[in-house]
Amino acid sequence: MATSTIEQLRARVSGQVITPGDDGYDQARTVHNAMFDRRPRAVVRCTSTADVQAVVDYARENGLDLAVRGGGHSVPGFGTVDDGIVADLSGMRAVAVDPHARTAHAGGGATWGDFNAATGEFGLASTGGIISTTGVGGLTLGGGIGYLARGLGLSCDNLLSAEVVTADGRAVVASEKEHEDLFWALRGGGGNFGAVTSFEFALSPVDVIYGGPMFFELAHVPEILGFFRDFIADAPEQYGGFPAFQIAPPLPFIPTDRHGEPFIAMVNCWTGSTADGQRIIDRIRAVAPPVAEMIGPMPYAALNTAFDGLVPAGLQHYWKASFVKELTDDAIAAHAAHGPKVPVVNSTVHIYPINGACHRIAPDATAFAYRDANFAVVIAGMWPDPAENEANTAWVRDYYAATAPLSEEGGYINFMAGDDQDRIRANYRGNFDRLVEVKRAYDPDNLFHLNQNIRP
């Protein structure tokens, strides 16, 4: 097919096409992780599925690398590319809720903040992330771990359908009734199979939750993690909290003289009654005395925004991830050795529980294969100063090296760095070969390769 020019692309889309030399180019090419300073040939701010189709066609026809940028973070920098083209979906953020059917449609560039604001009006929610600026698309395509996962399943388990622009420029709807193989692959297989322009989710009643953060002295790490391991094994599924290593930010409920110190924290989310939630929190308080806490009833959406201030755009990011079946005493000791070394207030380590409803889905029912893992660990290195890149990246790598032998071989793709490509097969276990088949069917030339890539 004959190549087309940028001017022809401008004529084919309704959104802005921004190229080097255009006003706003530097802003348009900037991504959440400031480690990535790339210069695409063009950034297209898509406003419709037709725009996305035009960009996909343009990249394919011209042999250009294609980056699809949703609404959120992409820690490995997959939302940008040197000398290629970026389909920026961040303008496609509309969320439409049908409260009677308990469903919501979200644009491919929507964030969980957008989603929760719309669904929360009706006292409804679906499993989202921990930070509200996380993109609906990226989180869901990688699986979708969040506060509500133990009760409602992963984000991808609540996905009913998706509109996808495939590598040949078609727009198709994938669901349990059409393009079933594609629908299976989208639920955990990442951005390998197309650009998703719309997601349809099932919603559940979730309005006011009971919870918030608690900070404990580092001396209590073994007791807190040991309690969490035992408690979460058969805890009511309304509980979706997790332990974390966190430097205390300058918040009013934390004693001023403890600001800037590292702690072991428990971030709590209880979707049942307040009275039952109080009893759960009392069990945690009985393990060790909190140094500080901010516990109470709040809208679910408020908890989802509570840590946004620690993760602004423009930080340096380097993350590692692992799945864990059992949080052994040796694993707890490794966390106790490395977690307290968290370098800055933005960096953190979270140990998410993914049992409960997550386990009721068969490992081959979706691309997300680790249905027997009980925990998903993320070592999230985030810091503002590029001069600290070497030291802080080393903290992440050393921590991961200490915990990896005590973890499963694969990990959660949404928490992985760009240098984790050698773990792709392990991430999908027995689902990998089927994912390759779906990739060959929908993207045989690997146009969508800027991701944790499944090669056709």
UniProtKB/TrEMBL annotation:
GO molecular function: FAD binding; oxidoreductase activity
FAD-binding PCMH-type domain span: 36-206
Pfam families: BBE (PF08031), FAD_binding_4 (PF01565)
Alphabetical UniProt keywords: FAD, Flavoprotein, Oxidoreductase
PROSITE patterns: FAD_PCMH (PS51387), OX2_COVAL_FAD (PS00862)
Cofactor(s) this protein requires: FAD
InterPro entries, sorted: BBE, FAD-bd_PCMH, FAD-bd_PCMH-like_sf, FAD-bd_PCMH_sub1, FAD-bd_PCMH_sub2, FAD-linked_Oxidoreductase, Oxid_FAD_bind_N, Oxy_OxRdtase_FAD_BS
Family: Belongs to the oxygen-dependent FAD-linked oxidoreductase family.
Protein name: Oxidoreductase
Naturally occurring in which organism (per UniProt): Catellatospora citrea
Lineage, top ranks: Bacteria, Bacillati, Actinomycetota, Actinomycetes, Micromonosporales
